[in-house]
Every structure is written in structure tokens, then in C-alpha cells.
Amino acid sequence: MKHVTIKDIAKELNLAVSTISRAFNDKYDIRPETKQLILNKAREMGYRPNPIARNLLQQRSMNIGIVIPEFIGSFFPEVIIGAQEVLFKEGYQLLITQSNECYKTEIENVKLLERNMVDGLIISLSHQTKNIECFKELVSSGLPVIFFNRVIDILNTSKVVFDDYKWAFFATEHLIYQNYKKIFHLAGPANLSLAKNRIRGFQNAHKKHRLDVPDSHIIPSGFTIEDGDRVAMEMIENKNIPDAIFAAGDLTAIGAMKVFKRHGYKIPEEIAFVGFSEQTLARHVDPPLTSVAQPTFEIGRTAAKLLIAQIENQGVHIPQTITLSGKLNIRSSSMKLTK
DSSP character for 90? Predict the structure, then answer.
């Protein structure tokens, strides 16, 4: 079946192509009856607009790229759902990539999305990312970019972050109020600002209560179940068992819980656990994991709104950092049992 063009409609009605174009683009300088005649004829002839051609004229692809570090937990998929909710309403499609926590893959994803002429990018960094030259060039090129969760503080672009310091402070203080003394922090990757902020919150909660925090109580770890498993085994082998663990991520806490339970430790009677990010799994482990809940859907919605505003302002952009808050969901993994 032949594809009907606006030239075919113009020929059929003996009108100029420019007149047909004005009708389709709802211009003011065309008589209503002429416009209706054109629309009726287009429908009769089975005309379908060419979105690629229209977007080229508008100098937009109507595509947005998202680069995230992983799909293992529920955090990043929920952020994407929130962003999608906003972007779809505005007519944008999403191109989703994930780096699998690999810097090289992350950069390849960014370049791929650039080649696909996306109108903007929403990015959360891999834990390997230390070289930021590619991102500096990206921002300098004028492409609208929003960072979220794992951000580059020194880049002059908008960011959506969580108040990691405050909620790490509250999570640690919760354990202190439960009268746990020897509290360890399983820290996230050292190059991430959110990991640094969670360490500060952990330390300052102790300072508030005049408790010492030896450096050995802050253990470099990561965000995976395997990280928690590995660190817990090291503690057991070294006979260095804490009263409580505050992990920078839920999956790390769950990995450590699994190992300690396997070695006969009772939770929370002998070791209490608090995680971070409220992964779906946190509610379903035994015992259920106390965790800091982040507003994942709102993070995605906020990042999308910032990006759309930047795109529509056509380069006029005042970078802003939006900090969102959350809550501590207290469950039985951290509650001392009273006799």
C-alpha cells in the first residue's frame, strides 16, 4: 500500500503543500473550513504523519536517555517508573541503559545515547566512576543532563539527591537508642558522595551520644549481597563480632544477615541490622530488615521534570540541587527484645 504524503493530499485538493502543512500544524493563518476540508481528506486517504520528519523539523528526537548502574535491586527500576510517568505524558520515549557497575560500559552507554540524538540524559553513576572528563564534555556541549542519587558534586548541572547524611544519622541513632554499643558501618564505595555522607551520619550520631567510633568500625564494602557475605565471613574469621550493623545498602545488610544466621547468631538478640534504600526484599527476609526508605518514584519524577524544563528553556538553565527526604521503617531486625 502506497504511503500517503502531504503532496498527495495537496494534489487531490488542488492546494499548495504549504497550506496542507499549516492545517496539520494548527497554524492561525488558515481558514477553519479549509483546515477541516484538509483533515477530512487526509483521513479519507489514510494519511499518517511521519514522526521522524516532524521531529527533525522541530530539531528534537523526543527521546530521553537514562543511564543507571544496575537492575538487581528495586531502587533503580522504581526511579525509572517515576521518570516514565512524567516523560510519557509530555510525549517523550525512554531509551534505558545500565552499566552493570562498570565505568567503561557507562561511557559506552552515554555515547550510544548521544549518537541516537536523545534530547537529554538522566544519569546515576557506576561505583567505578572516578574519571569525569566525559561528563564534563557532555555538560559543556549543552546537552541537558540531570544526575540523580550518585552524582558529581562539582559539575554545573542539576541534581536530584537524597539526604543521606540525615537518614544515616537517624538510622545509627536508632541502634544507639536500642542500647547497642559496638556498631559497625558497612560503607559504600569511597568515591561516591552518598557513601561519604552516610559515613558522616554514622560518625556524628556517635559523637552526639559521646561514643567513640574507631576507624575499624567503618568497613569498606559495597552494595551487593556478595559484599555483605564477604565482610561477614571476615568478621567471623577474625572473631570481631559487632553488636549491630548499619549497612549502606539493604542488599549488603541481607548478605551479612544470611552469613551470621548460618553460623548460629541470633538476630536481633546477638546482632542487630539496619539497611538503606528500602529494597523490596527488605520486607521479606527473616527477620524483616529495618531500612531507610527513599522516595524512589519521586526521585524519578523530579529528575524528569527538571530535564523537561531544561529542554524547553532551550539552553537557558540555572542548575539546582533538589534534596529529598525519606523515613526509617523500623522492623524486627533492629529491635531489642525485652523480657
Answer: T
